[in-house]
Design a protein that fits this description.
This protein is α+β, with helices and mostly antiparallel strands. The chain is built from three helices and six strands; from the N terminus they run H-H-E-E-E-H-E-E-E. Strands 1, 2, 3, 4, 5 and 6 form a six-stranded mixed β-sheet that branches. The chain is elongated, with a radius of gyration of 15 Å.
Length: about 140
Protein backbone atom coordinates (compact mmCIF):
# COMPACT_ATOMS: atom_id res chain seq x y z
CA UNK A 1 0.00 0.00 0.00
CA UNK A 2 1.33 3.43 -0.95
CA UNK A 3 1.36 6.04 1.82
CA UNK A 4 -1.45 8.54 1.51
CA UNK A 5 0.89 11.53 1.70
CA UNK A 6 2.85 10.16 -1.26
CA UNK A 7 -0.33 9.63 -3.28
CA UNK A 8 -1.61 13.11 -2.43
CA UNK A 9 1.76 14.72 -3.18
CA UNK A 10 1.87 13.04 -6.59
CA UNK A 11 -1.71 14.03 -7.40
CA UNK A 12 -1.15 17.66 -6.41
CA UNK A 13 2.21 17.85 -8.23
CA UNK A 14 0.74 16.41 -11.42
CA UNK A 15 -2.29 18.68 -11.19
CA UNK A 16 -0.11 21.77 -10.74
CA UNK A 17 2.16 20.63 -13.59
CA UNK A 18 -0.92 20.43 -15.85
CA UNK A 19 -1.49 24.18 -15.46
CA UNK A 20 0.43 26.15 -18.12
CA UNK A 21 0.52 29.29 -15.93
CA UNK A 22 2.24 27.36 -13.12
CA UNK A 23 4.78 25.75 -15.46
CA UNK A 24 5.64 29.09 -17.06
CA UNK A 25 6.57 30.52 -13.63
CA UNK A 26 8.23 27.64 -11.74
CA UNK A 27 8.89 24.99 -14.39
CA UNK A 28 9.22 21.65 -12.61
CA UNK A 29 10.18 23.15 -9.23
CA UNK A 30 7.35 21.71 -7.13
CA UNK A 31 8.60 20.34 -3.80
CA UNK A 32 7.10 18.26 -1.01
CA UNK A 33 7.68 19.50 2.56
CA UNK A 34 11.38 20.37 2.05
CA UNK A 35 13.42 22.63 -0.23
CA UNK A 36 17.22 22.76 -0.22
CA UNK A 37 18.62 26.11 0.96
CA UNK A 38 20.41 26.73 -2.34
CA UNK A 39 17.27 26.29 -4.49
CA UNK A 40 16.65 29.29 -6.69
CA UNK A 41 13.34 31.18 -6.39
CA UNK A 42 10.52 30.91 -7.43
CA UNK A 43 9.18 27.46 -6.57
CA UNK A 44 6.11 25.79 -5.06
CA UNK A 45 6.01 23.85 -1.77
CA UNK A 46 3.34 21.29 -0.86
CA UNK A 47 2.76 20.66 2.86
CA UNK A 48 0.29 18.18 4.37
CA UNK A 49 -1.72 20.00 7.04
CA UNK A 50 -4.39 17.52 8.15
CA UNK A 51 -6.55 14.61 7.09
CA UNK A 52 -6.26 10.88 6.54
CA UNK A 53 -7.72 7.78 4.95
CA UNK A 54 -11.18 6.84 6.16
CA UNK A 55 -11.53 3.83 8.44
CA UNK A 56 -11.92 1.26 5.64
CA UNK A 57 -9.05 2.79 3.59
CA UNK A 58 -11.14 3.39 0.45
CA UNK A 59 -11.44 7.18 0.62
CA UNK A 60 -9.30 10.03 1.87
CA UNK A 61 -9.95 13.61 2.89
CA UNK A 62 -6.87 15.81 3.39
CA UNK A 63 -5.95 19.48 3.48
CA UNK A 64 -2.73 20.71 1.91
CA UNK A 65 -0.89 24.02 2.00
CA UNK A 66 0.15 24.89 -1.56
CA UNK A 67 2.36 27.98 -1.69
CA UNK A 68 4.55 29.64 -4.24
CA UNK A 69 7.70 31.17 -2.80
CA UNK A 70 9.32 34.21 -4.41
CA UNK A 71 11.12 37.45 -3.63
CA UNK A 72 9.26 39.44 -6.29
CA UNK A 73 5.87 41.09 -5.73
CA UNK A 74 5.09 40.80 -9.44
CA UNK A 75 5.91 37.08 -9.47
CA UNK A 76 3.93 36.63 -6.25
CA UNK A 77 0.81 38.01 -7.91
CA UNK A 78 1.34 35.77 -10.95
CA UNK A 79 1.89 32.73 -8.68
CA UNK A 80 -1.23 33.53 -6.64
CA UNK A 81 -3.28 33.68 -9.85
CA UNK A 82 -1.73 30.48 -11.22
CA UNK A 83 -2.15 28.43 -8.03
CA UNK A 84 -5.73 29.67 -7.57
CA UNK A 85 -6.64 27.78 -10.75
CA UNK A 86 -6.62 24.63 -8.58
CA UNK A 87 -9.94 25.73 -7.03
CA UNK A 88 -12.78 23.59 -8.44
CA UNK A 89 -10.34 21.69 -10.68
CA UNK A 90 -10.47 17.91 -11.02
CA UNK A 91 -7.23 16.40 -9.67
CA UNK A 92 -4.90 14.58 -12.08
CA UNK A 93 -4.88 10.99 -10.80
CA UNK A 94 -3.39 9.12 -13.79
CA UNK A 95 -0.26 8.05 -11.88
CA UNK A 96 -2.28 5.48 -9.91
CA UNK A 97 -4.61 2.88 -11.37
CA UNK A 98 -7.99 2.62 -9.69
CA UNK A 99 -7.58 6.05 -8.07
CA UNK A 100 -9.95 8.90 -8.83
CA UNK A 101 -11.25 12.08 -7.29
CA UNK A 102 -14.59 11.92 -5.56
CA UNK A 103 -14.72 15.72 -5.46
CA UNK A 104 -12.91 18.61 -7.12
CA UNK A 105 -10.05 20.42 -5.35
CA UNK A 106 -11.39 23.13 -3.09
CA UNK A 107 -9.57 26.19 -1.80
CA UNK A 108 -10.48 26.55 1.86
CA UNK A 109 -8.16 29.42 2.77
CA UNK A 110 -6.11 31.79 0.61
CA UNK A 111 -2.55 32.54 1.72
CA UNK A 112 -0.50 35.68 1.22
CA UNK A 113 2.38 35.93 3.66
CA UNK A 114 5.43 38.20 3.64
CA UNK A 115 8.52 37.97 5.82
CA UNK A 116 12.14 39.04 5.62
CA UNK A 117 15.41 37.13 5.78
CA UNK A 118 18.47 39.34 6.16
CA UNK A 119 16.46 42.33 4.88
CA UNK A 120 15.31 40.44 1.77
CA UNK A 121 11.54 40.04 1.40
CA UNK A 122 10.16 36.54 0.85
CA UNK A 123 6.54 36.11 -0.27
CA UNK A 124 4.46 32.95 0.18
CA UNK A 125 1.27 32.94 -1.89
CA UNK A 126 -1.30 30.25 -2.60
CA UNK A 127 -3.78 28.56 -0.36
CA UNK A 128 -5.00 25.64 1.70
CA UNK A 129 -6.64 23.05 -0.56
CA UNK A 130 -8.94 20.19 0.34
CA UNK A 131 -8.25 17.01 -1.63
CA UNK A 132 -10.74 14.16 -1.48
CA UNK A 133 -9.95 10.90 -3.29
CA UNK A 134 -11.45 7.49 -3.93
CA UNK A 135 -8.33 5.40 -3.32
CA UNK A 136 -9.52 2.20 -4.93
CA UNK A 137 -6.90 -0.43 -4.05
CA UNK A 138 -4.03 2.04 -3.45
Amino acid sequence: MTALQVIDKDVLSHTLASLPDVVSIVGEKIFWEHVDADEELPYIVLTHIMGRRDLDNTYSDTTWKVVGVTASAITAEALANAISQLDHLDPVTTAYSGLCAYHYLEEVLPIYDRYQIQNNPILNVGGMYRLRLNLGDN
